[in-house]
Here is the input.
Amino acid sequence: MALEIRKPGLLTTIQDLGRPGYFHLGIPVGGAMDRLALRAANRLVGNDEGAAALEAVFMGPEFTVTEDTVLAVTGGEMPIKLDGEPVQTWTSFAAKKGQVVSFGYLSEGARIYIAVAGGIATEAKLGSRATYAIGALGGVDGRAVAAGDVLPVGEGDGIAGRTVPEALRRRPGQPAELRVLPGLYWHRITEASQKAFFEDEWKVAPEADRMGYRFRGGRPVDFVEREQPFGAGSDPSNIVDGCYPYGSIQVPGGTEPIVLHRDAVSGGGYFMIGAVISADMDLIGQLQPNVPVRFRQVDMDQALDARRARQSTLDEIRAALA
Amino acid sequence: MKTRYSHGGDEHIFVEVDEEMSLDAFFKSLSMTNALREADIDGVTEICPANASFQVKFDPDVIAPGDMLDKLKALEDVAESAEKKMTTRIVEVPVFYQDPWTHETLMRFRERHQDPDGTDLDYAAKINGYDSAEAFIEAHHSSPWFVSMVGFVAGLPFLYQLVEREKQLQVPKYLRPRTDTPKQTVGYGGCFSCIYSVRGAGGYQMFGITPMTIFDPEQTVSYLKDFMVFFRPGDIVKFAPIDRAEYDRILAAVEDGSYRPRIAEVTFDLDAFNADMAGVNAKLMEALDGA
Here is the structure.
């Protein structure tokens, strides 16, 4: 069984839950940007939640299935077509040998996850099939999916017609809200800038990818004056190069915040004002350029409550598909 | 040195051993990460040492962030008393300074630079008080460097110059990061040199390029068969200037599997180094010359 890629879409990559354990060498965990959507798609077709699937951004691919199989598509809303006929999203469906899966225009979110029963079975690198294009790891020979690729699929026995209840399909709001725990080098900016960051409405910039999302539209930050420490460099936004957490928010030059995501650089020389909490990382993966975003300040207790709430959403999805 | 602890969201703790860079801060950070690894705490998933800081990633469902913080603070005293000595290796890295590829790239991103009318090397030479790019280049390769962090992208080493602080080169990063840097560019930012392991974004000034592959995901390069990343924290590097012909020769040798980096095993003792930098460096060079 295989998927024969006819059209790759804009940027379609093989992703799973990533390769933890190598961030100290600059190799990020990677994997699906919207992990809840990946887990749900895999559950729908009877796979392990961490099986490899396709992540397509803004535009869907077009492919032929070489054997009878079961598929499911979750994440952003994009009409699915099976030999041109519409199929429901967030619902497993059967495809016959030779049938073509294609997609209409994205109407909501940014990324879809296409799971196939048995999971994509390309070669794993450092324990994962996730595509990390910068380091040429995973994926198809270290790269994104291209026309003509034949993606091997493992053994699976999915059941068609299973669906994730509408209420459990989590989406960004309007404006999208990202909860942030201030910290790291938060003390480097003035109180007025600390307030402004949470008051202002930001927009996702065009530079938004798997490494990080840039935002613009809010006021630039003012720094607390200091003599720059030895080794940091002369700009007030510079620090002695250190590690960057996933979700951390750096503001190079004090102008446009960047939130690091799954393919994060592991460190560098820009100060950070805190980090987006783990519960909201998936949402970032569903933001399109130009959508309005607000950052909301939370404390650690609220961050952990949000994490538990997200875990229970996942548990409800598991229960609904049990 | 004043150690500062901060949560980085709900899954990370960031520990800044010192605001400024020094080998003392590096050794303390390294000792704390070693102690943390030995403590084998449930829920810890990644331990990332950096130049003068480090980061821990953990699963807050297994260990509460507050408890993680307490455990880290308890390690600080252990680290204070640790020996500042390590067995490591010195590696010669050939560098083609002022090469055509980084030159093309730095011209392409000139509007993001402090000095749009010059080159990165001219600018670095000027602000460090050197008469020419050539004199600056000589300062860059005449003393050894210490790998104080590996990261940013896959296998990229940050290098700290083994000289008295007043002799250390310092150059700011680009005003706005570039979206492109040639693979194996030798760069500079703050007080650190670096070698870009892969092509991609970067904010460091660009001085030259090495033909020596330092990251190979396919693991076909002869000296990267055991692991795809060449550098590790604590490695010592000596840059060796080469010309275009030598660059082409080494590049071909890396590709056909005949290139072997020049490497010697050495011991680095921070107290001995602080007491006599010239003497320790001379011994390091002697070891390399004998390799």
